[in-house]
Design goal:
7 helices, mainly alpha, about 120 residues
Length: about 120
């Protein structure tokens, strides 16, 4: 299996298991390689670290829940694979340049304007 195929397989694993509390070591073990080698190959093939990729999946899931549900931030954070609402909120703001609440309000405003 080529490195690209192997990374694609690991990306699929992350997309399926993003809600679990995964560590780099857990993921590397699942892929049957050492964590240093796994991190290196993943970064070379994708341009990001394994944990950055996992957080992007989690943040995008959280973003979808903010858009499509009325759930509070904490359940969204937990359902998206984050250990806490605080960490989810900080990561969300860093990645999307607005808080989860600001994002939700902006989407509600757009929805109201369309209707």
């Amino acid at each position: 299996m080529s490195n690209a195929e192997w990374v694609t397989l690991s990306q699929r694993y992350l997309q399926i298991n993003y809600q679990k509390q995964l560590t780099l070591e857990d993921i590397a073990n699942e892929m049957h390689v050492g964590k240093t080698y796994f991190e290196h190959v993943f970064r070379v093939e994708t341009g990001s670290s394994v944990m950055q990729y996992l957080n992007q999946i989690r943040l995008n899931h959280g973003k979808q829940l903010l858009r499509e549900s009325t759930m509070k931030i904490k359940p969204i954070a937990l359902r998206s694979g984050f250990k806490s609402a605080n960490y989810f909120s900080r990561a969300f703001k860093k990645y999307f340049e607005m808080t989860p609440s600001e994002y939700r309000k902006s989407k509600m405003k757009i929805r109201d304007e369309i209707v």
